[in-house]
Hints:
Blueprint: H1 16-21, H2 46-55, E1 64-66, H3 75-91, E2 94-98, H4 104-118, H5 122-126, E3 137-139, E4 154-161, H6 178-203, H7 210-214, E5 221-229, E6 241-244, E7 250-254, E8 262-266, E9 269-272, E10 280-284, H8 286-291, E11 301-303, E12 311-319, E13 325-326, E14 344-345, H9 346-356, H10 362-367
Parallel strand pairs: 1-2
Antiparallel strand pairs: 2-10, 3-4, 4-5, 5-12, 6-11, 7-10, 7-12, 8-9, 8-11, 13-14
Helix pairs in contact: 3-6, 4-6
The structure holds N-oxalylglycine (OGA) and nickel (II) ion (NI).
Amino acid sequence: xxxxxxxxxxxxxxxxxxxxxxxxxxxxxxxxxxxxxxxxxxxxxxxxxxxxxxxxxxxxxxxxxxxxxxxxxxxxxxxxxxxxxxxxxxxxxxxxxxxxxxxxxxxxxxxxxxxxxxxxxxxxxxxxxxxxxxxxxxxxxxxxxxxxxxxxxxxxxxxxxxxxxxxxxxxxxxxxxxxxxxxxxxxxxxxxxxxxxxxxxxxxxxxxxxxxxxxxxxxxxxxxxxxxxxxxxxxxxxxxxxxxxxxxxxxxxxxxxxxxxxxxxxxxxxxxxxxxxxxxxxxxxxxxxxxxxxxxxxxxxxxxxxxxxxxxxxxxxxxxxxxxxxxxxxxxxxxxxxxxxxxxxxxxxxxxxxxxxxxxxxxxxxxxxxx
Length: 371
Ligand code: OGA
Ligand code: NI
């Protein structure tokens, strides 16, 4: 249960942004990853790298899907969109969506507002400093293991849903527009996630409402994590966010409009996502992997940093109501394909990442029922 988490961090918190702005030329040891976890591992020769970059990289991107036709009167156009999403969920676990119904102005003001928040003086932000019990507020680490190697980022984490968990007094009071923008952004993105849940549910053959109902209907959880990745004097030695899969249901990511950094695992490669203007990046989380009995898989991703520009991203996590048992849909469990995961609540599940920090797909893999 949540109460198992300690109430303070194992070491004094250092704000990565403050480190970055101090002008250091070398990053502290605590941020230096072992060789095999670094962004450019395995090292390829210059020739191979340039060949690889020029010949393959521009061609690879996660699928970009236009949702416009979902509401077309032409059933075949609508079906085509559903099948593009189905394919993306099976092959990538990640896709970008355009014409999704959230206004570009709101997306723009959300980015701008949060950039302004992170550019406030440190002591203003410190008023919101978080603790491991809820993670709500201004934070700089995930996980409570003493001596852990840390990621090169700060964040702000807040609860949006259920309403009973929403506490606006914990949201930034500055910039003045912040609370209003969070409320509007939360409303629109939660609505969009609800629609995506219907699409996934239909595609899994479960009936439109199934996934949403399993998540608790109106009582779903939604949290916002705003990531701030300061520029880094030695970007090749560290990561902005270590490899992980998202523990929740679905994630809707608003990436920086100027700086890339998100990488998605595809087989044994890391593919850098090239954000499309006005798009959201969608990814399947562990709870959908469990509910779909691994027909859809949550996919590992990580963030790289650079020496030149700070990067901001907003991740809206759409989660099951935290005390409901989540288990594979009966319809997707057969003699040939028994239930791969035991029932578990999201409260229980989430403790793992909150204790251990980002650990690839270790958690969902460890859950697998013995067969
Ligand atoms: C996350 C995440 C990616 C990014 O917050 O879980 O994966 O690009 N963020 O910031
Ligand atoms: Ni993530």
